[in-house]
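Lab notes, practical 5.
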Amino acid sequence: MEQASIPGTIPYFLKEQIRRSIIDGTFRPGQPLREQDLERRYGSSRGPIREALRLLEQSGLVTHIQRRGFRVTLYSEREIRDMYLLRAELQSYAMLRLGDIDDLKPLLKEMNECHQRMASAFEARNVGQYVQEIRNFYDASSRFLGNKPLQDALNRLYETAEPLRFNLLSRRLDKSRSLQYTRKIMQALKARDFALAAALKREHVLLNLPSIVETYMAATYEDTEARAG
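Output from the prediction step:
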């Protein structure tokens, strides 16, 4: 805990540690997050642990169930589909709105850098970095637009979807088509074919959804209370 030298930062330090364990599947969907277990795991007192869990609840990664405590958020198949389809529509909207901007060279440069880092992560089989660069690639367009409401909505969706994406790619990285789609999207934006860029994003989501749902359901924590909650 030496890294968190200022007491006020401790919950945020713990939040990031727990967040990483949720994303990489150490803590599985629906798994109880018992405060006493987390105290022992991270060598912290209950107050900072509880605050970290509250912060994660705000981001959507953790759910608090009355009289049962905190759990990793567990999504139904319908919720996963709604989440991904909404994100696809918002990202597609961002692609279309880029048509209002004359010079896309700075954006395309940033996207290409993300694409290159994705390719390196793919070759190194670094799933965490690969997932992060996918997020960076699509986040670039909403940031370039300067549309804060759009950014806020997408950031929430990105965060809640991160464990699902990591779960899929940690099992099926070799089957990932993200590099092909990011390349095609860049080509479409360079040609100023914004409708094609938007359509490619939707297509990629629809292609991934069945595998996302399948691998997520297989990874859920086997606990009837979690499912009932």
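Observations recorded by the TA: The chain has two domains: 7-73, 77-219. Residues 7-73 form a domain with the Arc Repressor Mutant, subunit A fold (CATH 1.10.10.10).
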